[in-house]
Hints:
The chain contains seven helices and 33 strands. It is mainly β.
Amino acid sequence: xxxxxxSLPASVLAQGENTAETDVSVITxxxxxxxxxxxxxxxxxxxxxxDENNSVISMRGVRGIAVVVDxxxxxxxxxxxxxxxxxxxxxxxxxxxxxxxxxxxxxxxxAVTTRRAGGRQNPAVNLTQGxxxxxxxxxxxxxxxxxxxxxxxxxxxxxxxxxFRTVPRSPFPxxxxxxxxxxxxxxxxxxxxxxxxxxxxxxxxxxxDNHSFFGRPNWAFDWQTDTVRSQFAWKMNERWSLEAALGxxxxxxxxxxxxxxxIDAAGLAAEQWLIQDTRxxxxxxxxxxxxxxxxxxxxxxxxxxxxxFSASDYASxxxxxxxxxxxxxxxxxxxxxxxxxxGRLELGLRRDWQRYVSSRVxxxxxxxxxxxxxxxVKAATxxxxxxxxxxxQTLRLRGSLGSGFSPPQATQLYNGFVSAGSVTLANxxxxxERSTTADLALLGNVAGGNGGITLFATRWQDKIAVRIxxxxxxxxxxxxxxxxxxxxxxxTHWSQPLFERWQLDANYTYTRTRIVRDQSAPQLVGxxxxxxxxxxxxxxxxxxxxxxxxxxxxWRLVGSAYTDEANTVADSQGYRWKKxxxxxxxxxxxxxxxxxxxxxxxxxxxxxxxxxxxxxxGEPRTLRGEFILHF
Length: 631
């Protein structure tokens, strides 16, 4: 029996390979193996409507993208740590997706399903070695096996990355790098599963140790993650099945931060010692039903998130600030799919409650302050409806309407503070940010190719920002729901066989964002959101021979984008805030034979120098190589 993941509704589980809907794109293990990406995030950047900037993902002009791994609420950090060969399937849900994923899915979601343990009677072992021209390297050892109903899988990796980001010039001195950034990571990921005819269960254990150096002598962090997750599925009969999941994630981080006033000795001197610990516990259960073309799902989830943070003087270790919070998230959800005439109707509804159990912030000086709070509950109801309708034999029309939300932070609700020249007030009445997305797509197969065009619009309401209440001395300010943003555009994608063994894949996204209301800064009305390029396009030319050789050329084009909501082009000091448009060409070739695989790739062939983040420059020309032995 194939293990059913608690996060995936029956409608999605029933979809086939390479599904492309107006609001859902599916990337399969075969797609990943064919592309041989440097990382999953790099591959996702080439998908319609997705951007990534400093570990913040946005789609269709809206931030707030949920990341889910094997049905558990996750993060961009775990997504980056997953290796391509671990992944069975990635779903990219564009537009508001809180009806399925709850909080943080205001702009969409990325749902990853990793490969299940086992899959072969005889144990298999893979050894992978990778190198790049910047001095980075990685070694991975993986294995899996299955005997009767019992299956296992194990992957261990040691990795070193070098020179992945530079900031040669910035109006913010703390950003400027004086050395190449680099990082190290070691990880172990193990799975044990029981796959019976009517009952399946799995246990997943992960551990990693990481170090990151951010290009300044006293800006570095060490962190450790531990994860345990278990899943269960019971097929009660041909129609009904019961699924459940339990998990816990722990993350412990410690690091040093410099004074940040410049790149001289004083500015680079160590100033703060930072410690952060987080723990997330999660449980979910769902009852699934299917009968012919009818499918349904009903369930609930519970998440408890505990966070602690402290900053101390680097030399004396005297405490400067300390914060801790405890949040409980509860949800009930229902989803269904059914035939409607010649088409199919999909319905989803979810109710979320986020209880801010406690929040405490301590500022040790020079004016001692301590604030506490707790008990506030924020709730949101998120519906979604989608209808797909065939137009003849080759075309299909699909439309959907959904909603999303992103709750406020605990410190914004409870913890005001006083600093030199300003007073910040707490705001227990702060509401979650909300979004509504509508899209309409025409999809089909024409002249041997397949693709489609989608029109979309998202309304982002109750935008949270700091509003100044009194410009006196001190300035009095408060976090409030102050604004509204509109985002609309179109996405188009096409895949076309050109001639024998050659194929062209292309996609283009146009996104227009506009601030329509901002009570804290009315002068921003009409401006575009930062880090939201209007134009993005990707062209991929693939060649695959029958002898195990394949080659790819990938051309990525990204339009210009602003860095701030004021839409500053350049400031009085000559710093350019508006990021220029750029294009990057990547080439890759792979060889596959019995017992081994090899890949050679050249990223950023023309060594384009471009700004991809907050004054951060993108990766330079890099030669990558990977060799895999199968035993």
